[in-house]
Design brief:
The structure holds two protein chains of two kinds. Chain A is of the alpha+beta class. Chain A is built from two helices and five strands, in the order βααββββ. The two termini of chain A are about 20 Å apart. In chain B, strand 6 and strand 7 form a beta hairpin. Classes of the chains: A alpha+beta, B alpha+beta. Strand 2 of chain A pairs antiparallel with strand 4 of chain B, so a sheet runs across the interface.
C-alpha cells in the first residue's frame, strides 16, 4: 500500500517535556558519552534532545493509520540534526513534527519528517530531519 | 588553521587541520547495550529488542537502532574534541545493519577549519568490523565553546 500523499503538511505535537538527569545519564551510558554525575553535560549529548524530545512525535507519526506506514518494511534511511543550543535541565521544551514530503520511487515510498523542539520563548533548541523509506516489494529491514 | 588536540592519558597530541585523519574508535555492540538504548531513548521497536520478531520480518536477528549508531558516532566526535567545543550539526545515511556482536568503528577526517578557528567540519563514517558500511555520508560541525585561543583538549577515547 502506497503512502497517503494527502498527509503532507500534517503536524504532530507532543506534550511539553523536560529532560530528567537520570534519563540523560542512561542515554549517555548507552551511547558511550561522558557521564558526569549526577547529570551529564547536555551540550555533549547532541543526539539526546532530538531523540528524547522527538521520539513521542515520531511515535504519533508511526501510529497515524491515515499515513499508512508499514513499520516492518520501514527503514530509517537518513537523519540530520542541527542543535541551536544545548537544552537545560528543568526547562520545558515543546516538540513538534511535520510531514514534509512523500514520494514514490520505483518500489519505494519515501517520507521526510521535519522535527523541531522549541523552548518556552519559541526559540529552536534542536531540529531534526528524518528520511523514512518503506520497501513495498520486500520483507522488513528497519533501523 | 589547525588545533593541537592535547590528548589525555599521555597520548601524543594530534594536529587537527583540514585533511587530518582522526584516530578511529571502536564501539562494541551488544544486545544489552541495544536494550539499554531502547530504554533510555524510548524506542522499543521490537526489531531491536525481540529476536523472534526481527527474524519474522526478514532480518537476520535484532539490529541496533540507527540512532544508537549515530549517537556513538557523536560520542566519538566528542572524544576527539573534548570540552573545546560541541557538535552543532550532525547527519548521516543509515546504509547497513549493525548487529549484536559487531564492532562499530567510527572514523573521521577534518574537512575544514574556519578562518577564525572557531568552527570545524568533519567527514565521518561508521563501519563494522566485518566491513559493513553502516553509517555513510556522515558529517558533523563542531563549534568552539572554549574561550578564543584555547585549544581542544579532548581525549582519543578509552
Amino acid at each position: 500500500m502506497a503512502l497517503n500523499s494527502a498527509c503532507v503538511g500534517r503536524r504532530y505535537t507532543a506534550p511539553p517535556t523536560v529532560i530528567p538527569p537520570d534519563r540523560a545519564l542512561a542515554f549517555a551510558r548507552a551511547v558511550d558519552a561522558p557521564t558526569a554525575l549526577p547529570a551529564p553535560d547536555l551540550g555533549r549529548l547532541p543526539t539526546l534532545a532530538a531523540v528524547y524530545l522527538l521520539q513521542p512525535v515520531v511515535a504519533q507519526l508511526f501510529a497515524d493509520r491515515e499515513v499508512g506506514l508499514d513499520l516492518p518494511r520501514l527503514v530509517h534511511g537518513e537523519q540530520a540534526f542541527t542543535i541551536g543550543r544545548a537544552p537545560r535541565y528543568g526547562e520545558t521544551l515543546h516538540p513538534e513534527g511535520t510531514i514534509d514530503s512523500i514520494e514514490t520511487r520505483r518500489s519505494l515510498d519515501v517520507l521526510r519528517f521535519e522535527l523541531t523542539a522549541r523552548d518556552d520563548a519559541g526559540a529552536v533548541v534542536t531540529r531534526g530531519s528524518s528520511l523514512f523509506v518503506i520497501r513495498r516489494d520486500a520483507g522488513g529491514a528497519g533501523a | 588553521m589547525s588545533f593541537d588536540v592535547d590528548a589525555a592519558h599521555g597520548r601524543p597530541p594530534t594536529i587537527m587541520e583540514a585533511g587530518t585523519v582522526l584516530p578511529p574508535i571502536a564501539h562494541t555492540i551488544t544486545q544489552a547495550g541495544i536494550d539499554a538504548y531502547a530504554e533510555a531513548s524510548g524506542d522499543h521497536n521490537p526489531i531491536h529488542v525481540d529476536p523472534t520478531f526481527a527474524t519474522a520480518v526478514g532480518l537476520p536477528g535484532t539490529i541496533a537502532h540507527g540512532m544508537l549508531s549515530l549517537g556513538l558516532l557523536a560520542s566519538t566526535v566528542d572524544r576527539w574534541v573534548g570540552a573545546w567545543g560541541r557538535v552543532s550539526a550532525l547527519s548521516c545515511r543509515f546504509a547497513g545493519l549493525v548487529r549484536p556482536g559487531d564492532q562499530l568503528i567510527c572514523r573521521g577526517v577534518v574537512r575544514s577549519v574556519s578562518a577564525d578557528g572557531r568552527t570545524m567540519t568533519l567527514t565521518l563514517e561508521g563501519v563494522t568490523g566485518a566491513g559493513v558500511r553502516a553509517l555513510t555520508h556522515a558529517e558533523a560541525t563542531v563549534e568552539a565553546t572554549a574561550p578564543p585561543g584555547e585549544r581542544p583538549a579532548g581525549s582519543h577515547g578509552d
